[in-house]
Design brief:
Length: about 210
């Protein structure tokens, strides 16, 4: 801690991070031990965070992340979209296909940014807000690939055909190494086969988006 920082705010943020990393919540004693402060301090932190709906406590006294965090999280998408747009525009223009950034939203993949190429006669329509299961379509499959060691093997991208739209093919690569972000960058095109160079270009775009978000 330095003279310019707030110890109380720092502790409150650490509480939120600790709660976000557990599925079962934490007791006051557990938080006290992890933070290295007494239980009275933890009680005060939790009471303040509860007032803002950032923390909730169940009947057993275990603290969990509250719904107020979701309201804050909704404001993240515009920031992520803005940071990713330059890389997506470049990808769409280079490949001549609709480019998109897709993030995890629960059990679904959610398109949060879409850029269409400016010079093609036709392209696949793909809208911001489009949702689909994680295990269908290149974008979702790339996210699942990024969760395991498979992304370290092979070309680093996923190709699909006709899984979300008849006649359309997709290529996507996971966005890796960005804390708090789980997503993929991809393109969708009207083609039976996605050229190999498109897959490698998508991987490069995913790296560019990751760099912009770090």
């Amino acid at each position: 801690m330095t003279a310019e920082t707030s110890q109380t705010l720092d502790r409150g943020l650490r509480v939120l991070k600790l709660l976000a990393d557990t599925d079962h919540g934490l007791t006051v004693t557990e938080l006290s031990n992890k933070l290295g402060v007494n239980r009275t301090v933890v009680y005060r932190l939790l009471a303040t965070l509860e007032q803002h709906a950032l923390v909730r406590r169940d009947l057993g006294g275990r603290a969990r992340v509250g719904l107020g965090v979701l309201r804050l999280g909704r404001q993240v998408h515009p920031l992520v979209r803005e940071a990713a747009l330059p890389a997506l525009r470049s990808l769409a223009e280079d490949v001549g296909a609709t480019a998109h950034l897709t993030l995890v939203d629960g059990t679904e993949a959610l398109a949060v940014a879409v850029v269409e190429p400016s010079w093609t006669d036709y392209h696949v329509a793909y809208r911001t807000g489009f949702r689909h299961p994680l295990d269908r379509g290149a974008a979702g499959r790339a996210i699942l690939m990024g969760r395991g060691p498979d992304h370290e093997l092979g070309p680093g991208y996923v190709l699909t055909h006709g899984e979300l739209e008849a006649g359309a093919s997709g290529a996507a690569a996971p966005v890796l190494g960005v804390s708090g972000i789980e997503g993929s960058v991809g393109v969708v095109m009207l083609s039976e086969v996605v050229p190999e160079q498109v897959g490698t270009r998508v991987v490069r775009a995913a790296h560019e988006v990751a760099d912009a978000l770090r």
